[in-house]
Amino acid sequence: MSDVEKEPRGRVLIVDDEKVILDLTGIILRNRGYQVYTALSAQEGLETIERERPELVLLDYMMPNMDGLTALREIKRLYSDTYVIMFTGKGSEEIAVELMKAGASDYILKPFNNQDLVERIESVLKLRGIELQNRALLSERERLLAEIADWNRELEARVQEKSEALSRAQAEVVQSEKLASLGYLSAGMAHEIRNPLNSIALFVQLIKSGLDEPEREEYVDKILKEVDRIDNILGKLLDAAKRPKFEISEVRVDRVLEHTLDAFTPQLRQKRIKVVRDFRSLPPAIKADPMEIEQIFTNLFLNSIHVMQEEGTLTVSLEEEQDFLTVRVADTGPGIPPENLPNIFDPFFTTNSRGTGLGLSVVLRIVKTYKGKIEVEKSDPAGTTFAVRLPLNAPR
Known about the structure:
Among the domains are: 11-112, 3-Layer(aba) Sandwich (Rossmann fold), CATH 3.40.50.2300; 247-391, Histidine kinase-like ATPase, C-terminal domain (Heat Shock Protein 90), CATH 3.30.565.10. The model is unreliable at 1-5 (pLDDT under 50). The two termini are 83 Å apart. It is built from 10 helices and 12 strands. It is an alpha/beta fold. Strands 2-1-3-4-5 form a 5-stranded parallel sheet, with helices on both faces. It has a 5-stranded mixed sheet with strand order 7-9-10-12-11, covered by helices on one side. This is histidine kinase. It catalyses: ATP + protein L-histidine = ADP + protein N-phospho-L-histidine.
């Protein structure tokens, strides 16, 4: 490559109101391979900087209209990548300090030595290259640190998500183990308790047939009522532990919800509870046992009605979400205490002195049978919302 074709060593703007200085300095720098621009005033110099963006400006300190110090401050304010060497005929220490504070990279006294001028320019341009490189490295460092921080936040979020998923999976395993244990227990209890229970009921019936005293007949009736109650508890225990006989058919869940709500009309009227139906869409029928699906919502409605005071609101929503049919049952009760939430699906767990604690265990067993999910979406002093999700292609 010839000297003419060589890349310029840098772009330098010379700003001086003396044309002879511009011409002489321009010749010196062009001979050294620099691309040179000239301006006879500070204002013209600023316009040239805006247009050409030189790496370096040689700026005269004493100029009419806008002096060199004012121009220097303006250059540093507007063009931080442009470095400035000041020309000055006054060599006082105060001026030097003032120029350096204003942002000058160096200053040269007039008249100057040609070699000294070139060396100063090379030194400042070298310094500029280093400082710009450092600035770029710092910017890249900040970008990388920000990127690392984003990665860390994303990693923490993913770890949290996986931890929560693992906790949920572990909780489901524990629940399954509890239901399995309950199955072994209930099968044995049902057999061992129902046999003597049937005998008790039979003998009590025989006693009743030989009584003619109304008061004693009343006692016998109470005994039979308690026998039936024990038998019902055993039935619920078996329902919670294992699937009884079932019959699969096409089930419209919206109709099951309406039918189940109608069955609770007396209790709802007695407590003046308002029912809000929010059937946003009517999903297609699912293959299921209608009695099992009804049992899910019977237990949920019963719990909601029980915890609400008079003039509460029971909201039942139904919608299709992707491949799931979702039913939400929301009440305006006092909410479930946070410490009780992990145990609400446990067999025999209840805060109701008259309850068996098997209702939600039955619900969980049925929902899991259909590969669905049930969870408490919200529970606070304003009320509780249960969400039941059943696959539209629910397995038998």
